[in-house]
């Protein structure tokens, strides 16, 4: 994929090829129908499905919208709904060190909040359940965070992310001797 610079992420192109072809087939769309609805040329759709196209992130998002999935579902390997994907390299710039990784996503057409958190060593935050339709996405910047959900605990280290429905009791726990810093997105999906 590219935005303004070419990328060298062949694994992502393979995931995109498999996902676009599978999703298009599941929706009983021809390549031409997908092209027409997404305003991406049929030739580009064919190249994508063959794993040979370097498509812009914006055009890839147009395909995702028509296919009714999130951007991350287009670029990640097929996984079941109980696991979160590893961060996926989705863009690489012309200069070393310029890159974008997708952690996780949730479809939303409503309110989204961005929070910056710092949790001191040995501290915790106990949350009450949100109403149904609320989700959270966390990205760990520094340290280690234990996310305790009603049915499991995620141990998240710097560079990792997770999304989960927040209509359950949950806790953020820092069991380390140094602070944990993370980004939290709160999303209302209705």
Give a quick rundown of the structure.
Helix content is 26%, strand content 31%.
Q: What shape does the CA trace take?
A: elongated
The average pLDDT is 82
Bin the helical content: 25-40%
The poorly predicted ranges are 1-9
- The H-and-E topology, N to C, reads as HHHHHEEEEEEEEEE
Structural class: alpha+beta
Radius of gyration: 19 Å
Strand order within the widest beta sheet: 3-10-5-8
| Main β-sheet description | 4 strands, antiparallel
Percent strand: 25-35%
- DSSP strand count: 10
- The termini sit apart by 31 Å
By DSSP (H or I, 4+ residues per run), the number of helices equals 5
Question: Would you write up a description of this structure?
Answer:
- This protein is an alpha+beta fold and 190 residues long.
- It is built from five helices and ten strands.
- The chain has helices at 10-26, 31-38, 42-49, 57-67, 71-75, and strands spanning 88-92, 99-102, 112-119, 124-127, 134-142, 144-148, 153-157, 161-165, 170-173, 180-188.
- It has a four-stranded antiparallel sheet, with no helix packed on it.
- Strand 1 and strand 2 (99-102) form a beta hairpin.
- Helix 1 (10-26) crosses helix 3 (42-49), helix 2 packs across helix 3 (42-49) and helix 2 crosses helix 4.
- The two termini are 31 Å apart.
Element layout with pairings:
Blueprint: H1 10-26, H2 31-38, H3 42-49, H4 57-67, H5 71-75, E1 88-92, E2 99-102, E3 112-119, E4 124-127, E5 134-142, E6 144-148, E7 153-157, E8 161-165, E9 170-173, E10 180-188
Antiparallel strand pairs: 1-2, 3-10, 4-9, 5-8, 5-10, 6-7, 6-9
Helix pairs in contact: 1-3, 2-3, 2-4
